[in-house]
């Protein structure tokens, strides 16, 4: 261990916090990521701080259950005594704090940040995001306090506050039971608010629950159940046993009605719940007058039900989807005398039960002493300070609701069949899919029609905890029939997810895949850097390649197929935002975004993009670029099958490997070259199926745009893996073009006064090489058809300011190899650089290439994007090729329209007969909006 000098100080602090809401670079599951600095504590492992381990275990003794790296209970304790660093200890404390709050979290990892002594990455699992974050913050404070005690810090008090926070944000017992059952069936779920609104399933298959109310629950049925007077009349019309009752709004009317019905009576709110305002066993008019305002206060419409008091035990029958699933006898809140303690002391002893909490936060509710309870105790001949005799029950409420402190006894298998039939018929009459039928009768084992008794209430959204956690008796697993009702056996809960990543080509490939499945009639939800598209409508215009956008698509009830463009930034920031993808597509790993968020090498960038491959289940597929060595290595991280795509020549090492893969039954998409052209071929096992000639695919510009040939091959492989028939894939690729309608900002070709203008998003050196190859091929074609000599090639280029200096200069060097004139601009977002700084770096790269004999003969700097476009067009002549690498493609396309006198000529690859106008920058793109030159 490290030799220590001096005295340890409480220097542990959090310097960065991230929340991963899906698979990420650290874990397959959601995780909290803390970057912590140990400060001076880097020199003080646990065994060098006197008494540290003993104090830690005294406050959190259950740390002795942690395995740590030893793989056995007590392994972490061994590490503590041997000496381990305090960042590692904070990780284990974060996990244990969550366990103290009832969240069984066990996965964690602590690693030192390379090149930063004393700085560590801590990751640990969480079930509830606010609780997970609070656990990490409390863990750091707690560890610091163990190093040097702070009189203002009391761990017991802080732990209680933490547990109460966890209880406030946790699901109630009913919601949690349903969610747990869904998870056990591999049904995905999303929490839609901070309360109990939950989505089960994805897209078109989604169902919603709020506590025990479901998306199948009829609003009319809920309204009927909320109106107790109407409920009673409906049940009576079906011949079901109900008490005599009517509703009134005035106290004297209530007295008159009670006199008519006959005492004793019950007063309760017309539309109350949880037993609030219910006054039982009223013996005379004075009692009715006293009870009326209590009931009226809980009635939203001011009506009070007066009904005859039915004597007997209180039973709750739970009916789910027309069937009785559980019955519980509800015993009102009470205490039992022991001859020693007072009534008040007995209440305190009862409330000390750890199963009791506030409201619905635990399986039992604490008993509250209010005026009604005091009066009820006096009616039984006691005061709160009296000591009741041994074994004498003292009731504290008259209703048996769990929410007022009652207990439950399971009676599911004891009920008489006739009583079960009555309860089921009551639920059918009201129309509820989940109903709580409240029976009052002497004995549920005997027919109520013979023994007397009645249905006193029908509850929509009844609580489950009296059945799932009865105080006495066997628990009933009633979440199962609820999930069976929402997702019958064999029902689908997930929609197919295709996720696409890579340094370049993500957006175009995603659009191609989406286009294929749209052609098959699927309602596709797609995310990309341009926004979220739902069934061909752009619903949100922004960079939507992150996890939040993916979750928005999965929540949309129209979507039955999802295509996600997944960017590096979103993975590092939040993870994937969903649990798994059926098909993962990795196009390439090239030097871009390096030096950001701790990603400094291509290997590290590959690890980030490989998260998609790790999120492929055993039944899924990873579509990988065999021509990229870093992508090839990702095959080892795939639990499912690998589908290769490659442009390698037959006989090459890569192609031989693919042939071997296919002979073993694998799948691949390759390029077969001949004198007639290049053919995309799908291989499955020993079968080879011709898909399409590349020069017949509009997006490839007659086979010249090799980047789109590769994108088309990746899209074909992904669609084939996702189950699309070959002819639908072929039709999709043949009808996909780079018009502004289908592919805004990606290789849009427009004729502007006789000039061929290409609008593209190219912004890094690898993409510029691919674009430059396309420019060379297209330029040769234009030269061959030109009548005025060799056309000039003018390029407007830029890159993001957060790239490394060398990467920015390299962009200029590559561009200089393919353009005669280069115009350097800048994005509106400078990303940390001064105005003109990144443009200066690009310009220096162009100039260096020019000095080495590159094609370029002139470089100009025009910082504003639209001014740069105007400048480039002004430098060009009819017949020239102008390539605009844009940031805001809508503004650029609108500008081109304004300067063009030949707008009707339109885009070479655009739709025929379209609207000739461009989308203005402030217009929302919809199906009715013009998007391209016709």
TrEMBL record:
The keyword Lipoprotein does not apply. Its EC number is 6.3.2.29, 6.3.2.30. Keywords: ATP-binding, Ligase, Nucleotide-binding. Residues 232-487 form the ATP-grasp domain. GO terms for molecular function: ATP binding; cyanophycin synthetase activity (L-arginine-adding); cyanophycin synthetase activity (L-aspartate-adding); metal ion binding. It comes from the Bacteria. InterPro entries: ATP-grasp, CPAse_ATP-bd, Cya_phycin_syn, Cyanophycin_syn_N, Mur-like_cat_sf, Mur_ligase_C, Mur_ligase_C_dom_sf, Mur_ligase_cen. Residues 912-927 have a biased composition (Acidic residues). Residues 904-934 are annotated as: Disordered. It catalyses: [L-4-(L-arginin-2-N-yl)aspartate](n) + L-aspartate + ATP = [L-4-(L-arginin-2-N-yl)aspartate](n)-L-aspartate + ADP + phosphate + H(+); [L-4-(L-arginin-2-N-yl)aspartate](n)-L-aspartate + L-arginine + ATP = [L-4-(L-arginin-2-N-yl)aspartate](n+1) + ADP + phosphate + H(+). Catalyzes the ATP-dependent polymerization of arginine and aspartate to multi-L-arginyl-poly-L-aspartic acid (cyanophycin; a water-insoluble reserve polymer). Homodimer. In the C-terminal section; belongs to the MurCDEF family. This is Cyanophycin synthetase. It comes from Kribbella sindirgiensis. The gene is cphA.
